[in-house]
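User: Could you write out the 3D structure of this protein bound to MTE? I've included everything you need below.
Assistant: Certainly. Input first, then the structure.
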Amino acid sequence: MEDMKVPSVPPPLRPSFSGRLHDARTAVSVGRLLGAAIAICFVTGVVSHYLQHPPGWAVDALPSRPVWGYRVSQGLHVASGIAAIPLLFVKLWVVYPRLFVWPPVRSIRHALERVSVAVLVGAAGFELFSGLLNTVQWYPWPFSFVPVHFAVAWLLAGGLLLHLAVKWPKTRSYWGRRSEGTVKLAAEGDAADRRSLLRGLAAAVGAVTLTTVGQSFTPLKRFDLLAPRHPDHGPQSLPVNRTAAAAGVTSALRSMAGWRLEVVGPRPFQLGLDELRALPQHEVELPIACVEGWSKNAHWSGVRIRDLLERAGAPAGARLRAVSLEQHGAYRVMEMGSDYAHDPLTLLALRLNGQVLSADHGFPARIIAPNRPGVLQTKWVARLEVL
Ligand SMILES: Nc1nc2c(c(=O)[nH]1)N[C@H]1C(S)=C(S)[C@@H](COP(=O)(O)O)O[C@H]1N2
Ligand SMILES: [Mo]
């Protein structure tokens, strides 16, 4: 590769690289796998963001089907992000000799290219690192995760497109086995080393994927050794993200005798737990799909939200707001568009997997709706408002 040529008179402290794997063909082979992982991660991340924080005009346009849509999309988001970690390390190892190119800046174009690579590497490292820590709910930084992770994702996407555009002529000449650059390198006899590196990389990606993907892809749950959640660990065979104790609702739950669901609308009303149980009950099979990557199907039963809306005199197309007993916390208030609110599968659930909801799963009543991020499946519901 032209810009990796050893200069005729190297400065004294410049390291020299003799390994054959720092070549353009290896960079392209690893880079396109990394690019594919980042592309999946970016698209699913944008989907997740807009399902959680839809702009006002889009609230009613979000679809409540397929019921498993968010589950698959967010499972892919976290799996592709985790797979990208070994890919990024190997890609950086392959190209790091370029840090020492001499002279460090050859032209304005070269300087801009190096700056854009720095932005790309920084953004990729930040996204994968912050995302991984988010899956274990560890936030060792002063900013709030969601907006920053979202903003830097655009920086990463832009940086990646720019990088592809700048490098395209060269990338193309090393793309296939028969490409001109590859053929030239092969004549120098390094194909076997490259194959070993790529096999090792495939093994690493396979290992991190296999030991984490079971958190959302239940057929592989036996191998779920490294993910923070296991689909079978939790009360009533369902993991818990935030317990009743962590949400500070345990004392409120102790005096549940006085609990009444308040429904606010053109014809407001209140119902005690026994009255809710006396209404027509519906059963649904729907997943909780946490934004942090774990998901699991469960069997829910309770009252249809649309029946409650109708009783409150909600006009057609009305939206819904649910407010939790929880006093603090980002997820105590939730809104849903009319598609979700009127879906026959959207329930105010009272039972989970054949039992009364446990405190950690949202007793006395929680929201469960199809194709929604877990953060919007509000627990410990106190009030429903017709909007
Ligand atoms: N009121 C309230 N509801 C909540 C939460 C919360 O912190 N407070 N956490 C949400 C998140 S992040 C998830 S993934 C689901 C988890 O539901 P589960 O604990 O029943 O599995 O509940 C959601 N509902
Ligand atoms: Mo969650």
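The radius of gyration is 26 Å.
User: Perfect, thank you.
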